[in-house]
Amino acid sequence: MCAQFHPTEDLVASASLDQTVRVWDISGLRKKQMPGGGAPRTGQQADLFGQPDVVVKHVLEGHDRGVNWVSFHATMPVIVSGSDDRLVKMWRYNESKAWEVDSCRGHYNNVSSVLFHPNAELILSNSEDKHDNERFWVMSAHPNLNMFAAGHDNGMIVFKIQRERPAFTAAKEMIYYVKDRQLRKFDTTTGKDSSMAKLRAPAAFMLPYYSLQYNPGENAFLLSARSHNKELCTYDMYKVTTREGECSDAPVVSRSAGVATVWYTLNRYAVLDKNQQISIRDLSNKEVRKVELNQPCNDMFFAGTGKLLLRNDDSVQLYDVQQKRSIGCVKASKVKYIIWSRDMSHAALISKHQLMIVDREMSVVCTHQESTRVKSGAWDDDGVFIYTTSNHIKYALLSGDGGIVRTLDVPLYVVTVRGSSLFCLNREAAPVEVPIDPTEYKFKLALINRRIDQVLNMVKGASLVGQSIISYLQKQEDYLPSS
Predict the structure, then answer these.
(1) Gyration radius from the chain CA atoms
(2) CB 221 within 8 A of CB 237
(3) Beta-carbon count within 10 A of 157 CB
(4) Which of 120, 153, 215, 420 is deepest in the core (most CB within 10 A)?
C-alpha cells in the first residue's frame, strides 16, 4: 500500500495489507550502484549465493487489519503507521530489533495516511472519516514551509496548523517579543538581543501566543494566547523585575480566561471574555468595573488612555469608557490588527487583503487593496506607513499614494522603522534588520508638503530617475510652483 525511503539512512519502510510493516535494508543496492560496485572484477566469478541487494531488517506486527501508510521520523529511530483498524501506531527500532511504542485512537474509519510534522513534535493523520462528506486519502508536508496538503474524493486542501506570526510589541528603541517560551528584548540602537524572563507553558496544548502588550510605567506585559475555541483563550500578566543581563522565572500576577486584553490606563487593563463582555481590571486582576456595550464585540485594541477600539465582523468603533459612548465608527471588514501612529493622530487598520488608514475620529483617510495578504506594518517619524505583504515591503502616504519599497524572499513582520532601516521579526521569531531606500516616498511627501527645496535637492542629487517619477510630477502639477 505504501513504501517510503528514510531521509538519510539506507532504509525503506513498506506497509502492506498483510497487516505488517517491514523495514528493508537497501545498503547493498546503494553499494551496487556506486562506481565499480555492480560487476565482478576481472578474473573473478560472481557469487551466485551472495547477499541479496535488499534484505528485510525488521517485521513490525501489531495492526489487526491492512496497513495503509508508513512514515519515518526525520531524525529519530521512530516509525509511524496507519491502518484499516483505525489506529495510528508508533514504533522504535535499532540495529537488532523493532518494537511498538504506542497506539493513537480517535479515527472512526480507516486511517489512510500519516506523517511526522517536519519541525514540531506532532503526528498528522487523515482517514475515511468523511469530514464534510469527503474521505481523505493522502497527505504531504512542504519541505520548507509550514504547509500541508491533503487529498480527498473531490480535490485537495492546503492548510497550516501553527501560527507563524510571533507575539511582539515595540516601545521607543526596544522590541519585545516571545520566542521558545521566553520573553526577549532587542535593542534597535545597539543590536543587543537578550532574554528577560521565562514564560509559563500555555494553558492548552498547541495554544499559540497571539499578542503582547507592554506597560512601560509598571514594566508589565499582557500576553494573550488565543484559540478558535474561545473556551481555551487565556491571558497572563507578567511584571518583570529582572536586572540587565539576567533571566529568571517572571512572577505571573494572573492567568485568566479572556479572548483579548489591552492596557486601558497605566494601572488598569481591559479584558474581553468569551461572552463578548468587557471588564476593567487592576494590576491584581481584580475586576473594577464592567463596560456596557451597545453592539457585539469580538476583538478590541488599544486606543489611548480611557478609550478602546472595539471590532466586530464589519466595523470598528472608538469607544470612550468613561462617557459610555461611541466617539466614532468606521466600516471595515474583519480587521485583524490596528497600529497607531506615534502621535496617535492616525491608525492603520489591517485586514486580510486591505489596508485602511483612519484619523482620530475614525474618518477614512485612504484605502489600499492588495492581492496578497497584508502581514504587518509600522509608522515612521514622518507619518508614512510602511507595511509588508507576503512578498513585498510597501509604503502608504496619507494622501493616498503608495508604492513598493522592495521585494521579499520570505515573509517578515515589521515591528518598527528607524530611518532607512526596518526592524522585523521572521517566522522563527528572530530579529532582522532590513535596509530600505526611502527616497521615493520621501520625495512624494516633500512634494505634497510643498517643501520645494527638498524636492529640488533630490532631483539635483540624481537620486530619483525614471519615467515613473516624471509621470508622478505631471500628475502633481498643483503642488509645483508656477515659476
Answers:
(1) 29
(2) yes
(3) 12
(4) 215
Whole-number pLDDT of residue 445: 85
100 three-class SS: strand
Closest CA to 341 of 355, 318, 357: 357
Instruction: Give the type of residue at 230.
Output: K
Measured CA distances, 402 to 2, 366, 429 (Å) = 52, 10, 28
Residue type, 86: R
**Pick from 393, 418, 414: which is nearest to 404 by CA?**
393
Q: What is the DSSP string of 408-422?
A: -SS--EEEEEETTEE
Compute CA distances 428 → 142, 167, 180, 214, 410, whole Å.
16, 11, 9, 21, 11
| pLDDT tens, position by position, 246-305 | 555 556 667 899 999 999 898 999 999 998 899 999 988 899 999 888 788 999 999 998
- 231, three cell numbers: 473556551
Q: State the Cα–Cα distance between residues 353 and 371, nearest whole angstrom.
A: 6
Q: If pLDDT is split at 50, 70 and 90, which confidence band does 44 have?
A: very low
Q: 402-414 burial by CB neighbour count: b if 16+ within 10 A, else e?
A: beebeebeebbbb
Q: Is the pLDDT of residue 195 over 50?
A: yes
